[in-house]
Amino acid sequence: MATTNGWGLIGMGKIADDRILPGINAFAGNKLIAVVSREQARANAFAKKFGAQHAYINYDDMLRNPAVTVVAIETPNALHAEQAIAAARAGKHVFCDKPMATTVADAERVVEECEKAGVKLGVNFHNRFMPCFIETKRIIDSGEIGEVLVVQLEASPGANPASTRASWRVDPAIAGLGTTMSIGVHVYDILRYMLSSEIMTVTAFFDTPCGVMEQTNLSVFRFANGVMAQLNVNQKTPNPHNDFVIYGTRGRITGRGLTRSRFPGELQVLTGDGKNRSTEYPSVNAHAASVAAFSAALLDGRAASPSGIDGLRSVQLTDAMARSAWGGVHVSLA
Predict the structure, then answer these.
(1) Could you read off the pLDDT of 9-33 as tens digits, one per residue?
(2) Between vectors from CA 290 to CA 196 and to CA 263, what angle results, nearest 5°?
(3) Which of 88, 145, 289, 320 is most buried per CB count within 10 Å?
(4) Are 171 and 118 members of one domain?
(5) Phi and psi dihedrals of 167, rounded to 5?
(6) Into how many domains does the chain fold?
(7) Is 311 among the domain residues?
(8) How much is the CA Rg of the chain, to the nearest whole Å?
(9) Which SS3 state, helix, strand or coil, does residue 146 take?
(10) Residue pLDDT, tens place only, 266-293
């Protein structure tokens, strides 16, 4: 087993700068070997800032570096699959930003190529590492609120004029979908994780016609275990609550302001005996926790969580949502 992870990173965006690269450097078993940008000056600047040994403008050159054992992909959505497959074929483990791909076929290819190469594949669904959701899953699994019946959830950064300006995020050929893949995939994944069940049927409504990037996605899920969930994910409404409520047969869990990792909030639990308790949760760097978990899994030889299968399930879901919204139909994922 390796004693050090040699990281290479593709993509010099804000998340890489603010969250991923600091997270890589914060884990004791990691060493930042290389960064890749389309511009040499930008690659040089990031290498200097974060202590990378090499700065490349071509990720193929980085993949030929034997000191790089794991690759973080922080590029526009449509590039993820090609870059993940290239890394796998070069024998590198893959830590991919969400969504893992913009089509189901590409997501399946990423999983297959990583399995064929014998490398680990992780996806940055960082909500799984937020303490409030870890505690919520513990409460659900303990049976304290009984059997979960219904979930209601809102996730939004608020009205976001930047989301309507010219950038790759508003180009369907590069982004895939809008708020669904930018914001929604995190809360869709966390529901699968907390409820320990797969989504079997989805009905979605977008605020735009077919082929136009949506800013609002209102959806209903039916899970395999019978739970129903109602979700509002958007980049359009000002002053969002970012709450969630989980109703059980013997109690209720309410998260006030907790669906976005960069903001603090409160978890309220009502138990079957009528007692209430609440816990304050500060904002956290869940991205760094996600990087640390993947880094530890590599050194320990454990499977990654969230895994490539989690990434594939997410792409299957968002594809079903688009078909539902634009076709006006319920879509089964069974």
Answers:
(1) 999 899 999 999 999 999 999 999 9
(2) 90
(3) 88
(4) no
(5) -165, 170
(6) 2
(7) no
(8) 20
(9) coil
(10) 999 999 888 899 999 999 999 999 999 9
